[in-house]
Input
Amino acid sequence: MLGGLLSLSGHDVTLIGRRQTGQESRPVRIVRPDGWLLADSIRHSHGGDTAPRAAEATLVTLGRQHLRTMRRPELLRLVAGDGPVYLFNCDPAEAERLAVPRERRRFGVTLTTAVKLQEGEVELAAPKSALIMEKHPIGQQVFSCLGSHGFEIQEVDDAVPFLNALFLYQLIFLPVALCNLTVGAFLAGTDGRELARNILREGFQTMEKAGQALAPLPIMDPQDLLTRLEKKQGSFQANQDVPDRAYNTVLQSYLRGRQLEIAFLNRRLVEMASAVGLHLVWNWRVVQKAGRVASAGFYRDPAELLRSLQ
Output
């Protein structure tokens, strides 16, 4: 999605994927509520290609679980050069493990909901989108154009606290996906809100105990969500008649039949808590239910899921 928007803004973009596509260039269609855009000048490359193109900036947009499976030589070959390497929505520890040079490393956070409809077609389903990036002159040149596509752009000195906040927000993705719902639909009922509160509380407790800093996100902020869950129950009842197409990434994986590492985020929190002497209940229990979809199908509603966890 980012590659398509950058290409539409005049940047020369090459997408490097994990699988051979058989096509050096193919269009990407980006669907928005007000219409759609076609980015038809994007090159596609396979990760095993012997000579990646030199780039002014490199964007690493792999999910946390996928970045964890990469090997150091593989990534370093792909980011060869001297331009900045932006790692979006990642575990900061992975940049250390993969030895991305400190002077080139920049962390970033994308806050949006991009739903892959089919190969080469992505829908921007979020009503608002934001991008947070660590400061770099080239980054200003590359990402400023996203403002014309509805993104709120924020430059910061340190994006790690924002990454930590996004990690907490994404903890609710697994229980939401287990019910085949969007976040909004999940939180519309009292059972979904109770489960989300329990999971987020454990997340905040773990981050505090582990000494991990947090920063408020302009949208999708976990502290704002937890405050609303505890004090403003009625705010989740509005606009339920409006179609909601914002399927989170975990649900998208389930719907495509990709079960591998489906509980990665919640399992990672359990590991972090254990390392600092905490024993979580709700996140641990929801991890145990991650394989339910493959064997018995989705839960009928959040109430059924909550009962199964108690």
Remarks:
- The chain has two domains: 2-158, 171-309.
- The chain has 15 helices and eleven strands.
- The radius of gyration is 19 Å.
